[in-house]
Amino acid sequence: MFDDLTRLAAAVSRQEAAAPSPAFVLWRTLWIAANGPLGRKKAVALDGLPDPYVYLFGVECALVFVAHELAAVCGGRLAASEAAGLFDGWRVAPSPDTTDSATALSRHLATLTADERLALLAGDPFRTLYHALLPKAIRHTLGAYLSPPDLCAHVLDGVSADRLFESAEVRFVEPNCGLGAFFSALLARGLPRAHLGHTFARQVFGVEKNLGSWAVARALHAAIVAELGGEAAPHNVVWADSVFVDEAAIAAALGTERPAGGRTLVPGHLKLALPADRVTPAALAHTAEVREAFDGEAWQPVDRPLRDWLAEQPPLTQGVLRDALDGVARLESMGGFELIVGNPPWVNWENLDPAYKALILPSWPPLGLFAMVGRDRAFAKEDLSVLATYAACLRFGRAGTRVGLLLPQGLFQSRKNAKGFRRFRLGDSGIHLRVDGVTDFSAYAAFGDAKNRTAALFCTLGGEPATYPVRYRRFAPGGAFEVLRAMPSAPDDPTSNWALYAEDEAAAPAAVSVRTYRARTGVFTGGANAVFYLRVLDGEGPLLRVENDTDRAKVKVERVEAQLEPEWLYPFAKGRDLGPWTVDRPPGNAIVVPHTVETKMRPVPPEALGGTAPRTLAYLARHEALLRVRPSLTGMDKASVAEGFYALLRVGDYTFAPYKVAWKYISRTFCCAVVGPSSLAGTLRPTVLQEKLISIAFHDEAEAFYVCAFLSTTPVRRDVERRIVGTQVSVHVIEDIHIPPYDAADPVHRQLAAVCREGHADGGLTPARQARLDALHGSLAGGVGRHPCQ
Question: This protein's superkingdom (predicted)?
Answer without folding.
Answer: Bacteria
